[in-house]
UniProtKB/TrEMBL annotation:
WD repeats lie at residues 206-238, 273-315, 318-351, 367-402. One of its GO terms (biological process) is chromatin organization. Residues 254-264 have a biased composition (Polar residues). PANTHER family: WD40 REPEAT FAMILY (PTHR22850). This is Histone-binding protein RBBP4-like N-terminal domain-containing protein. Residues 1-44, 238-266 are annotated as: Disordered.
Length: 493
Protein backbone atom coordinates (compact mmCIF):
# COMPACT_ATOMS: atom_id res chain seq x y z
CA UNK A 1 0.00 0.00 0.00
CA UNK A 2 2.81 2.39 0.87
CA UNK A 3 4.46 1.80 -2.49
CA UNK A 4 1.18 2.63 -4.22
CA UNK A 5 0.85 5.88 -2.30
CA UNK A 6 4.30 6.97 -3.46
CA UNK A 7 3.42 6.70 -7.15
CA UNK A 8 3.09 10.01 -9.03
CA UNK A 9 -0.46 11.36 -9.14
CA UNK A 10 -2.29 11.03 -12.43
CA UNK A 11 -2.47 14.26 -14.37
CA UNK A 12 -5.84 15.81 -15.13
CA UNK A 13 -7.83 14.35 -18.02
CA UNK A 14 -8.24 16.74 -20.92
CA UNK A 15 -11.83 17.78 -21.51
CA UNK A 16 -13.34 15.38 -18.97
CA UNK A 17 -15.66 16.58 -16.24
CA UNK A 18 -15.76 14.78 -12.85
CA UNK A 19 -18.66 12.37 -12.48
CA UNK A 20 -20.75 11.84 -9.32
CA UNK A 21 -19.88 8.86 -7.12
CA UNK A 22 -21.84 5.65 -7.69
CA UNK A 23 -22.91 3.18 -5.01
CA UNK A 24 -20.45 0.43 -4.06
CA UNK A 25 -22.13 -2.42 -6.02
CA UNK A 26 -22.29 -0.38 -9.19
CA UNK A 27 -18.75 0.80 -8.58
CA UNK A 28 -17.45 -2.77 -8.12
CA UNK A 29 -19.28 -3.95 -11.23
CA UNK A 30 -17.99 -1.02 -13.23
CA UNK A 31 -14.46 -1.55 -11.86
CA UNK A 32 -14.52 -5.23 -12.96
CA UNK A 33 -15.74 -4.29 -16.44
CA UNK A 34 -13.17 -1.50 -16.75
CA UNK A 35 -10.39 -3.80 -15.57
CA UNK A 36 -11.40 -6.43 -18.13
CA UNK A 37 -11.66 -3.75 -20.82
CA UNK A 38 -8.23 -2.39 -19.91
CA UNK A 39 -6.70 -5.89 -20.11
CA UNK A 40 -8.15 -6.52 -23.56
CA UNK A 41 -7.19 -3.02 -24.77
CA UNK A 42 -3.70 -3.46 -23.29
CA UNK A 43 -3.27 -6.83 -25.07
CA UNK A 44 -4.33 -5.31 -28.41
CA UNK A 45 -2.07 -2.29 -27.82
CA UNK A 46 0.89 -4.56 -26.97
CA UNK A 47 0.40 -6.57 -30.17
CA UNK A 48 0.24 -3.37 -32.23
CA UNK A 49 3.35 -2.06 -30.48
CA UNK A 50 5.33 -5.26 -31.10
CA UNK A 51 4.36 -5.13 -34.77
CA UNK A 52 5.36 -1.46 -34.98
CA UNK A 53 8.70 -2.14 -33.28
CA UNK A 54 9.63 -4.79 -35.83
CA UNK A 55 9.15 -2.20 -38.61
CA UNK A 56 11.19 0.61 -37.02
CA UNK A 57 14.27 0.22 -39.29
CA UNK A 58 12.03 0.41 -42.36
CA UNK A 59 9.72 3.25 -41.29
CA UNK A 60 12.16 5.72 -39.74
CA UNK A 61 15.13 7.76 -40.88
CA UNK A 62 15.85 8.49 -37.20
CA UNK A 63 14.22 7.61 -33.86
CA UNK A 64 15.34 8.11 -30.29
CA UNK A 65 13.50 7.32 -27.04
CA UNK A 66 13.87 9.24 -23.78
CA UNK A 67 12.24 7.90 -20.63
CA UNK A 68 11.04 10.59 -18.21
CA UNK A 69 10.97 10.15 -14.44
CA UNK A 70 7.80 12.24 -14.19
CA UNK A 71 4.78 12.62 -16.46
CA UNK A 72 4.95 15.49 -18.94
CA UNK A 73 2.03 17.34 -20.51
CA UNK A 74 3.97 19.47 -22.99
CA UNK A 75 7.06 19.43 -25.23
CA UNK A 76 8.29 22.15 -27.62
CA UNK A 77 11.27 22.85 -29.83
CA UNK A 78 13.34 25.93 -28.99
CA UNK A 79 15.89 27.77 -31.14
CA UNK A 80 18.60 26.03 -33.12
CA UNK A 81 21.99 26.60 -31.49
CA UNK A 82 24.52 25.26 -34.00
CA UNK A 83 24.89 23.20 -37.14
CA UNK A 84 27.52 20.57 -37.92
CA UNK A 85 28.13 17.92 -40.57
CA UNK A 86 26.00 15.12 -39.17
CA UNK A 87 23.75 16.79 -36.60
CA UNK A 88 22.24 20.09 -35.47
CA UNK A 89 22.08 21.21 -31.84
CA UNK A 90 18.80 22.67 -30.63
CA UNK A 91 16.94 23.64 -27.45
CA UNK A 92 14.05 21.48 -26.27
CA UNK A 93 11.46 22.49 -23.65
CA UNK A 94 9.82 19.79 -21.51
CA UNK A 95 7.43 19.99 -18.56
CA UNK A 96 7.70 17.76 -15.47
CA UNK A 97 4.56 17.12 -13.41
CA UNK A 98 5.61 15.71 -10.04
CA UNK A 99 3.75 14.27 -7.04
CA UNK A 100 4.94 17.04 -4.70
CA UNK A 101 7.98 15.21 -3.30
CA UNK A 102 10.06 17.50 -5.54
CA UNK A 103 8.93 20.72 -7.26
CA UNK A 104 7.25 20.88 -10.66
CA UNK A 105 9.73 22.04 -13.27
CA UNK A 106 10.16 23.48 -16.74
CA UNK A 107 13.20 21.68 -18.17
CA UNK A 108 15.41 23.38 -20.77
CA UNK A 109 17.29 20.62 -22.62
CA UNK A 110 19.82 20.50 -25.43
CA UNK A 111 19.09 18.04 -28.22
CA UNK A 112 21.43 16.77 -30.93
CA UNK A 113 19.17 16.31 -33.96
CA UNK A 114 20.70 13.78 -36.33
CA UNK A 115 20.53 14.92 -39.95
CA UNK A 116 18.56 13.00 -42.61
CA UNK A 117 20.11 9.80 -43.94
CA UNK A 118 22.84 9.77 -41.30
CA UNK A 119 21.54 7.29 -38.69
CA UNK A 120 22.32 3.72 -39.74
CA UNK A 121 19.49 1.14 -39.86
CA UNK A 122 21.47 -0.91 -37.33
CA UNK A 123 21.38 1.97 -34.86
CA UNK A 124 17.64 2.51 -35.38
CA UNK A 125 16.93 -1.20 -34.92
CA UNK A 126 18.55 -1.02 -31.46
CA UNK A 127 15.63 1.11 -30.27
CA UNK A 128 15.02 0.55 -26.55
CA UNK A 129 11.86 1.75 -24.82
CA UNK A 130 13.57 1.58 -21.41
CA UNK A 131 16.39 3.96 -22.36
CA UNK A 132 17.22 7.59 -21.75
CA UNK A 133 18.38 9.12 -25.02
CA UNK A 134 22.08 10.00 -25.42
CA UNK A 135 20.95 12.81 -27.78
CA UNK A 136 19.10 14.74 -25.01
CA UNK A 137 20.95 16.50 -22.18
CA UNK A 138 19.38 18.62 -19.46
CA UNK A 139 20.74 22.17 -19.71
CA UNK A 140 18.74 24.12 -17.15
CA UNK A 141 15.88 23.64 -14.70
CA UNK A 142 13.28 26.30 -13.86
CA UNK A 143 11.25 25.56 -10.72
CA UNK A 144 7.72 26.30 -11.84
CA UNK A 145 5.01 27.69 -9.53
CA UNK A 146 2.52 24.83 -9.99
CA UNK A 147 2.16 22.14 -12.63
CA UNK A 148 3.23 23.00 -16.19
CA UNK A 149 0.17 22.18 -18.28
CA UNK A 150 1.24 23.87 -21.50
CA UNK A 151 4.41 25.41 -22.99
CA UNK A 152 4.42 27.72 -25.99
CA UNK A 153 7.43 29.55 -27.46
CA UNK A 154 7.35 32.96 -29.17
CA UNK A 155 8.01 32.22 -32.88
CA UNK A 156 9.72 35.61 -33.29
CA UNK A 157 12.20 34.55 -30.61
CA UNK A 158 11.86 31.01 -29.19
CA UNK A 159 13.95 31.95 -26.11
CA UNK A 160 10.78 33.64 -24.80
CA UNK A 161 8.38 31.01 -23.48
CA UNK A 162 4.83 31.17 -22.06
CA UNK A 163 3.45 28.57 -19.63
CA UNK A 164 0.04 27.68 -18.24
CA UNK A 165 -0.48 26.23 -14.79
CA UNK A 166 -3.54 25.72 -12.56
CA UNK A 167 -4.14 29.45 -12.09
CA UNK A 168 -5.69 32.36 -13.99
CA UNK A 169 -2.28 33.82 -14.94
CA UNK A 170 -0.01 33.20 -17.93
CA UNK A 171 3.71 33.18 -17.03
CA UNK A 172 6.40 34.50 -19.41
CA UNK A 173 9.99 33.25 -19.13
CA UNK A 174 13.22 34.42 -20.72
CA UNK A 175 14.67 30.91 -20.49
CA UNK A 176 18.28 31.76 -21.28
CA UNK A 177 18.42 34.54 -18.65
CA UNK A 178 16.66 32.49 -15.93
CA UNK A 179 19.06 31.00 -13.35
CA UNK A 180 19.54 27.24 -13.28
CA UNK A 181 17.85 25.75 -10.18
CA UNK A 182 18.19 22.49 -8.28
CA UNK A 183 14.74 20.91 -7.89
CA UNK A 184 14.68 19.63 -4.32
CA UNK A 185 11.83 19.45 -1.82
CA UNK A 186 11.18 22.85 -0.24
CA UNK A 187 13.06 24.85 -2.89
CA UNK A 188 11.49 28.23 -3.67
CA UNK A 189 9.98 28.68 -7.10
CA UNK A 190 11.69 30.53 -9.93
CA UNK A 191 10.31 34.00 -10.69
CA UNK A 192 8.71 34.56 -14.10
CA UNK A 193 9.88 37.58 -16.09
CA UNK A 194 6.29 38.67 -16.77
CA UNK A 195 2.88 37.71 -15.34
CA UNK A 196 -0.09 38.16 -17.67
CA UNK A 197 -3.34 38.82 -15.81
CA UNK A 198 -6.95 39.04 -16.98
CA UNK A 199 -8.66 35.67 -16.46
CA UNK A 200 -11.17 35.38 -13.62
CA UNK A 201 -10.77 31.61 -13.24
CA UNK A 202 -8.09 29.02 -13.96
CA UNK A 203 -6.65 28.99 -17.49
CA UNK A 204 -4.98 25.60 -17.82
CA UNK A 205 -4.45 24.54 -21.45
CA UNK A 206 -5.48 27.08 -24.11
CA UNK A 207 -2.32 29.03 -24.96
CA UNK A 208 -0.72 30.48 -28.11
CA UNK A 209 1.92 33.01 -29.15
CA UNK A 210 1.66 34.89 -32.44
CA UNK A 211 4.17 34.39 -35.28
CA UNK A 212 3.36 37.92 -36.53
CA UNK A 213 3.81 40.09 -33.40
CA UNK A 214 4.75 39.56 -29.73
CA UNK A 215 1.13 38.81 -28.76
CA UNK A 216 -0.08 36.11 -26.35
CA UNK A 217 -3.50 34.42 -26.38
CA UNK A 218 -5.17 32.33 -23.68
CA UNK A 219 -8.48 30.67 -22.85
CA UNK A 220 -9.82 29.36 -19.57
CA UNK A 221 -12.57 28.09 -17.31
CA UNK A 222 -14.06 31.59 -17.16
CA UNK A 223 -15.22 30.95 -20.79
CA UNK A 224 -13.20 33.90 -22.10
CA UNK A 225 -10.36 34.36 -24.55
CA UNK A 226 -7.76 36.93 -23.42
CA UNK A 227 -5.23 38.73 -25.63
CA UNK A 228 -2.03 40.45 -24.46
CA UNK A 229 0.75 42.37 -26.15
CA UNK A 230 4.20 42.00 -24.59
CA UNK A 231 5.71 44.40 -27.15
CA UNK A 232 6.48 47.02 -24.47
CA UNK A 233 8.27 44.48 -22.27
CA UNK A 234 10.73 42.89 -24.69
CA UNK A 235 13.81 44.48 -26.23
CA UNK A 236 13.68 45.41 -29.91
CA UNK A 237 16.35 42.80 -30.73
CA UNK A 238 14.25 40.04 -29.16
CA UNK A 239 11.61 40.19 -31.89
CA UNK A 240 13.69 41.33 -34.85
CA UNK A 241 14.82 38.30 -36.87
CA UNK A 242 17.65 40.27 -38.50
CA UNK A 243 19.26 41.31 -35.22
CA UNK A 244 18.25 38.45 -32.94
CA UNK A 245 21.01 35.94 -32.31
CA UNK A 246 19.35 32.85 -30.86
CA UNK A 247 22.57 30.87 -30.52
CA UNK A 248 23.91 32.51 -27.39
CA UNK A 249 22.45 33.02 -23.95
CA UNK A 250 23.47 36.70 -23.69
CA UNK A 251 21.57 38.97 -21.33
CA UNK A 252 17.86 39.20 -20.65
CA UNK A 253 15.62 39.93 -23.62
CA UNK A 254 12.88 41.04 -21.23
CA UNK A 255 13.27 44.72 -20.34
CA UNK A 256 14.33 45.17 -16.75
CA UNK A 257 12.44 47.53 -14.45
CA UNK A 258 13.60 49.47 -11.38
CA UNK A 259 11.22 47.44 -9.24
CA UNK A 260 13.11 45.65 -6.46
CA UNK A 261 10.51 42.86 -6.50
CA UNK A 262 11.85 39.49 -7.61
CA UNK A 263 8.66 38.75 -9.56
CA UNK A 264 8.38 40.23 -13.06
CA UNK A 265 5.83 42.97 -13.74
CA UNK A 266 2.16 42.19 -14.33
CA UNK A 267 0.71 42.92 -17.74
CA UNK A 268 -3.00 43.57 -18.17
CA UNK A 269 -4.99 42.38 -21.20
CA UNK A 270 -5.26 44.13 -24.54
CA UNK A 271 -8.72 42.58 -24.91
CA UNK A 272 -11.10 40.07 -23.28
CA UNK A 273 -13.33 38.20 -25.74
CA UNK A 274 -16.67 36.72 -24.66
CA UNK A 275 -18.66 34.20 -26.68
CA UNK A 276 -18.07 30.66 -25.37
CA UNK A 277 -20.55 29.00 -23.01
CA UNK A 278 -18.10 26.55 -21.42
CA UNK A 279 -14.35 26.13 -20.79
CA UNK A 280 -12.09 27.30 -23.62
CA UNK A 281 -9.76 24.36 -24.35
CA UNK A 282 -7.46 25.74 -27.07
CA UNK A 283 -6.64 28.89 -29.06
CA UNK A 284 -4.67 29.70 -32.22
CA UNK A 285 -3.51 32.85 -34.01
CA UNK A 286 -3.97 33.52 -37.70
CA UNK A 287 -0.34 33.14 -38.89
CA UNK A 288 -0.40 36.40 -40.85
CA UNK A 289 -2.26 38.73 -38.46
CA UNK A 290 -1.94 38.86 -34.67
CA UNK A 291 -5.39 40.47 -34.32
CA UNK A 292 -7.20 37.53 -35.92
CA UNK A 293 -7.47 34.34 -33.91
CA UNK A 294 -9.73 31.40 -33.12
CA UNK A 295 -10.75 29.29 -30.12
CA UNK A 296 -12.51 26.01 -29.33
CA UNK A 297 -14.19 24.79 -26.17
CA UNK A 298 -16.32 22.31 -24.28
CA UNK A 299 -19.43 24.00 -25.74
CA UNK A 300 -18.58 22.22 -29.06
CA UNK A 301 -18.05 25.63 -30.71
CA UNK A 302 -15.30 26.98 -32.94
CA UNK A 303 -15.15 30.78 -32.76
CA UNK A 304 -13.22 33.18 -35.01
CA UNK A 305 -12.33 36.58 -33.54
CA UNK A 306 -11.11 39.87 -35.01
CA UNK A 307 -9.66 42.25 -32.41
CA UNK A 308 -9.92 45.16 -34.86
CA UNK A 309 -13.73 45.10 -34.82
CA UNK A 310 -14.58 44.28 -31.20
CA UNK A 311 -14.68 41.68 -28.45
CA UNK A 312 -17.66 39.66 -29.75
CA UNK A 313 -17.27 36.67 -32.09
CA UNK A 314 -16.61 37.52 -35.74
CA UNK A 315 -17.98 34.06 -36.65
CA UNK A 316 -19.35 31.42 -34.28
CA UNK A 317 -19.55 27.84 -35.54
CA UNK A 318 -22.08 25.93 -33.43
CA UNK A 319 -21.66 22.16 -33.14
CA UNK A 320 -18.30 22.05 -34.87
CA UNK A 321 -18.08 18.48 -33.47
CA UNK A 322 -20.37 16.08 -31.62
CA UNK A 323 -18.44 16.45 -28.36
CA UNK A 324 -16.02 18.76 -26.49
CA UNK A 325 -13.33 20.31 -28.67
CA UNK A 326 -9.80 19.88 -27.33
CA UNK A 327 -7.51 21.49 -29.90
CA UNK A 328 -7.28 23.85 -32.87
CA UNK A 329 -4.58 24.94 -35.33
CA UNK A 330 -4.48 27.49 -38.15
CA UNK A 331 -2.65 26.57 -41.37
CA UNK A 332 0.63 28.56 -41.62
CA UNK A 333 0.60 28.31 -45.44
CA UNK A 334 -3.11 28.87 -46.20
CA UNK A 335 -4.98 31.21 -43.84
CA UNK A 336 -8.37 29.80 -44.94
CA UNK A 337 -7.80 26.37 -43.38
CA UNK A 338 -8.34 25.55 -39.70
CA UNK A 339 -8.09 22.15 -37.97
CA UNK A 340 -10.06 21.07 -34.89
CA UNK A 341 -9.75 17.92 -32.76
CA UNK A 342 -12.40 16.55 -30.41
CA UNK A 343 -13.44 14.05 -27.77
CA UNK A 344 -15.56 12.48 -30.56
CA UNK A 345 -12.24 10.94 -31.81
CA UNK A 346 -12.22 12.93 -35.06
CA UNK A 347 -10.39 15.83 -36.71
CA UNK A 348 -12.32 18.35 -38.80
CA UNK A 349 -10.84 20.67 -41.40
CA UNK A 350 -12.75 23.93 -41.88
CA UNK A 351 -12.50 26.54 -44.63
CA UNK A 352 -13.23 29.93 -43.08
CA UNK A 353 -14.90 31.10 -46.30
CA UNK A 354 -17.64 28.49 -45.75
CA UNK A 355 -17.79 27.46 -42.11
CA UNK A 356 -21.43 26.52 -41.56
CA UNK A 357 -24.41 24.89 -43.23
CA UNK A 358 -27.94 25.17 -41.81
CA UNK A 359 -26.52 26.83 -38.71
CA UNK A 360 -24.04 24.09 -37.73
CA UNK A 361 -20.38 23.42 -38.54
CA UNK A 362 -19.72 22.26 -42.08
CA UNK A 363 -16.12 20.94 -42.35
CA UNK A 364 -14.44 20.44 -45.70
CA UNK A 365 -13.15 17.05 -44.51
CA UNK A 366 -13.62 14.79 -41.50
CA UNK A 367 -10.62 12.62 -40.62
CA UNK A 368 -11.55 9.53 -38.59
CA UNK A 369 -8.61 7.33 -37.69
CA UNK A 370 -8.32 7.60 -33.90
CA UNK A 371 -10.12 5.33 -31.43
CA UNK A 372 -10.11 7.80 -28.54
CA UNK A 373 -10.27 11.54 -27.85
CA UNK A 374 -7.99 13.71 -29.99
CA UNK A 375 -5.73 15.84 -27.77
CA UNK A 376 -3.50 17.76 -30.19
CA UNK A 377 -3.48 18.80 -33.86
CA UNK A 378 -0.78 20.69 -35.74
CA UNK A 379 -0.15 21.59 -39.36
CA UNK A 380 3.24 20.68 -40.82
CA UNK A 381 5.63 23.59 -41.46
CA UNK A 382 7.05 21.61 -44.41
CA UNK A 383 4.01 20.93 -46.61
CA UNK A 384 0.75 22.91 -46.65
CA UNK A 385 -1.57 19.89 -46.93
CA UNK A 386 0.05 17.77 -44.19
CA UNK A 387 -0.81 17.74 -40.47
CA UNK A 388 -0.40 15.58 -37.39
CA UNK A 389 -2.89 14.51 -34.72
CA UNK A 390 -2.34 12.74 -31.40
CA UNK A 391 -4.89 11.10 -29.14
CA UNK A 392 -5.64 9.11 -26.01
CA UNK A 393 -5.32 5.92 -28.10
CA UNK A 394 -1.51 6.33 -27.97
CA UNK A 395 -1.16 7.07 -31.69
CA UNK A 396 0.27 10.04 -33.55
CA UNK A 397 -1.22 10.08 -37.05
CA UNK A 398 0.18 12.01 -40.03
CA UNK A 399 -2.38 13.03 -42.65
CA UNK A 400 -2.36 14.67 -46.08
CA UNK A 401 -5.70 16.11 -47.19
CA UNK A 402 -4.51 16.06 -50.81
CA UNK A 403 -4.52 12.25 -50.61
CA UNK A 404 -8.23 12.10 -49.76
CA UNK A 405 -10.07 10.34 -52.58
CA UNK A 406 -6.88 9.63 -54.55
CA UNK A 407 -5.45 6.23 -55.41
CA UNK A 408 -1.97 5.48 -56.66
CA UNK A 409 -1.45 3.15 -59.60
CA UNK A 410 -0.09 0.60 -57.13
CA UNK A 411 -3.34 0.67 -55.18
CA UNK A 412 -4.08 1.67 -51.59
CA UNK A 413 -5.01 -0.04 -48.37
CA UNK A 414 -8.80 0.23 -48.50
CA UNK A 415 -9.06 -0.27 -44.72
CA UNK A 416 -6.88 2.78 -43.97
CA UNK A 417 -8.72 6.02 -43.14
CA UNK A 418 -8.73 8.49 -46.03
CA UNK A 419 -5.83 10.93 -45.91
CA UNK A 420 -3.81 8.92 -43.36
CA UNK A 421 -0.33 8.07 -44.67
CA UNK A 422 1.79 7.46 -41.55
CA UNK A 423 1.12 6.24 -38.03
CA UNK A 424 3.63 6.64 -35.22
CA UNK A 425 2.81 3.87 -32.74
CA UNK A 426 5.88 4.12 -30.49
CA UNK A 427 4.02 5.39 -27.41
CA UNK A 428 2.30 2.98 -25.01
CA UNK A 429 -0.23 5.48 -23.62
CA UNK A 430 -1.99 8.73 -24.53
CA UNK A 431 0.10 11.14 -26.61
CA UNK A 432 -0.56 14.46 -24.86
CA UNK A 433 1.59 16.77 -27.00
CA UNK A 434 3.82 16.88 -30.08
CA UNK A 435 5.63 19.54 -32.10
CA UNK A 436 7.00 19.65 -35.66
CA UNK A 437 10.57 20.96 -35.88
CA UNK A 438 10.69 24.19 -37.92
CA UNK A 439 14.49 23.87 -38.40
CA UNK A 440 14.74 20.19 -39.38
CA UNK A 441 12.09 19.18 -41.94
CA UNK A 442 9.78 16.27 -41.07
CA UNK A 443 11.32 15.92 -37.58
CA UNK A 444 8.96 15.54 -34.65
CA UNK A 445 9.06 15.49 -30.86
CA UNK A 446 6.19 13.75 -29.07
CA UNK A 447 5.42 12.93 -25.44
CA UNK A 448 3.07 10.46 -23.77
CA UNK A 449 1.78 10.31 -20.22
CA UNK A 450 2.39 6.71 -19.15
CA UNK A 451 0.73 6.75 -15.72
CA UNK A 452 -2.10 4.41 -16.75
CA UNK A 453 0.26 1.75 -18.14
CA UNK A 454 3.40 1.95 -16.00
CA UNK A 455 2.15 3.76 -12.91
CA UNK A 456 4.29 6.82 -13.49
CA UNK A 457 6.59 8.76 -15.74
CA UNK A 458 6.34 9.66 -19.38
CA UNK A 459 8.00 8.88 -22.69
CA UNK A 460 9.55 11.49 -24.96
CA UNK A 461 10.39 10.44 -28.51
CA UNK A 462 12.12 12.34 -31.32
CA UNK A 463 11.66 10.87 -34.74
CA UNK A 464 11.68 11.40 -38.48
CA UNK A 465 9.91 9.10 -40.90
CA UNK A 466 11.83 7.78 -43.91
CA UNK A 467 11.73 10.23 -46.81
CA UNK A 468 10.67 7.30 -49.04
CA UNK A 469 7.25 7.63 -47.37
CA UNK A 470 6.47 11.28 -48.09
CA UNK A 471 8.42 12.06 -51.27
CA UNK A 472 6.64 11.94 -54.67
CA UNK A 473 6.11 8.34 -55.76
CA UNK A 474 7.86 8.72 -59.13
CA UNK A 475 10.94 10.18 -57.40
CA UNK A 476 11.08 7.32 -54.89
CA UNK A 477 10.67 4.64 -57.56
CA UNK A 478 13.43 6.22 -59.66
CA UNK A 479 15.78 6.19 -56.66
CA UNK A 480 14.96 2.56 -55.83
CA UNK A 481 15.54 1.59 -59.46
CA UNK A 482 18.96 3.27 -59.33
CA UNK A 483 19.71 1.44 -56.07
CA UNK A 484 18.64 -1.86 -57.62
CA UNK A 485 21.00 -1.27 -60.57
CA UNK A 486 23.84 -0.48 -58.16
CA UNK A 487 23.21 -3.69 -56.16
CA UNK A 488 23.16 -5.81 -59.34
CA UNK A 489 26.41 -4.20 -60.49
CA UNK A 490 28.07 -4.91 -57.14
CA UNK A 491 26.90 -8.54 -57.16
CA UNK A 492 28.64 -9.11 -60.53
CA UNK A 493 31.96 -7.86 -59.18
Amino acid sequence: MEAEQQQPQLPKKRGRKPKPKEDKKEEQSKSTKESSGRRSHSHAADEKYIQWKSLVPVLYDWLTNHNLVWPSLSCRWGPQLEQSTYKNRQRLYISEQTDGSVPNTLVIATCDVVKPRVAAAEHISQYNEEARSPFIKKYKTIIHPGEVNRIRELPLNPKIVATHTDSPDVLIWDVEAQPNRHAVYGATTSHPDLVLTGHQDNAEFALAMSPAEPFVLSGGKDKTVVLWSIQDHVTASATNPTTNNSTGSGGSIIKQTNDESSVGPSVGPRGIYVGHEDTVEDVAFCPFNAEEFCSVGDDTCLILWDARVGTSPAVKVEKAHDADLHCVDWNPHDSNLILTGSADNSIHMFDRRNLTSNGVGSPVYKFEGHKAAVLCVQWSPDKSSVFGSSAEDGLLNIWDYEKVGKKTEHGTNSSAPEGLFFQHAGHRDKVVDFHWNAYDPWTMVSVSDDCDTTGGGGTLQIWRMSDLIYRPEEEVLAELEKFKAHVLECSKA
